[in-house]
Amino acid sequence: MVPISVSPAELIEAAKELPGAPRLLIELGDLIHDPRTDARDVTELIKQDPALAARLIRMANSAAYARSEPVSSTEGAVSCIGFEEVHRLIGALASAQLSERPLQLHGVDGARLRKVSLFTALLMEELAVPAGESRRRCYTVGLLRSVGIMALEIVGRHGRIPPFNPGSGQPLDEWEKCHWGMDNCEAAEIILHEWRLPHETVIAVRHHYRPAGYHNPIIHLLALAAGSASDRYQGIAGEEGYWKPTDENFRKAGIQLREFQQASERAQKTFQRLEAALG
Q1: How far is Cα 239 from Cα 227, in angstroms, rounded to an integer?
Q2: What sign does the CA torsion over 236, 237, 239, 240 have?
Q3: Phi, psi of 94 (to 5 degrees)
Q4: Cα–chain-centroid distance for residue 237?
Q5: Are 20 and 49 in contact (CB under 8 A)?
Q6: Rounded distance, CA 44 to CA 28, Å?
Q7: What is the pLDDT of residue 5?
Q8: Which residues neighbour 84 within 8 Å (Cβ) at sequence distance 6 or greater?
Q9: What pTM does this model have?
Q10: Burial 54-78 (b: 16+ CB within 10 A, else e)
Q11: Four-way CATH pick for 8-18+102-278: 3.30.780.10, 1.10.10.10, 1.10.3210.10, 3.90.470.20
């Protein structure tokens, strides 16, 4: 079958059909990084998406946060739970938005995609501390690592691409190249550059399937986190062969096995709290 041969312009156009929360998450991360930012700045950004702001308020009032007095406004939610937790909640909402439609060609249902994306992000956030990396950037790149899959699905929805066959033994990226002319990691690189994610995090997504030989710590952190999420929540079919932790992964990520295990435990607790808040 002749590949579609997707162009960067087509991918960027397809990405415009994705929900707005992921791009807002990137803007929010940049805003929080600025020491001059105050609660009003964060509130105004979130209010650009009224539906997202409403869900943020509901999450802030959920049993997961055990508030004695409910908040009734975006301002109240931001003030009560703080910038870092707001960033985390917007990420959880982004994962929910992105998983609203199943990935039919890749054979991934929405619930599984949300769990894998959110846990990867939370583990990346935890691993960032011992690795000496930015928590917010690691969280964001973990959450958005599969955005290329979503864009390829949009581009391919009107074609005659057969669904991925997990029993074929073919790696996912090879199957994608056969039908789109590029794999999802290449697609994500194009989209995330367009969304102005920092270069070192974009490169991490581009190479995390095959991190050997690369020295950027975030590449190896992402490979470890995505593999852990896949083990816990079944993961995305065809990716299994990429997740083989090695001494090189840990060494170049700048973390020890024990630190990884402890980070996984903390990420799991946060994951359960956010899942409860999402309802």
Answers
A1: 9
A2: positive
A3: -65, -40
A4: 17
A5: yes
A6: 11
A7: 81
A8: 32, 135
A9: 0.92
A10: ebbbebbbbebbeeeeebeebbbbb
A11: 1.10.3210.10
Which position has the higher pLDDT, 167 or 159? Answer: 167
Distance CA 209, CA 115 (A): 19
pLDDT at 33 exceeding the cut of 70: yes
Per-residue confidence band for 3, with pLDDT thresholds at 50, 70 and 90:
low
The three-point CA angle 219-222-224 to 5° equals: 110
Structure tokens at 133: 């990396």
Token digits for 119? 């846990």
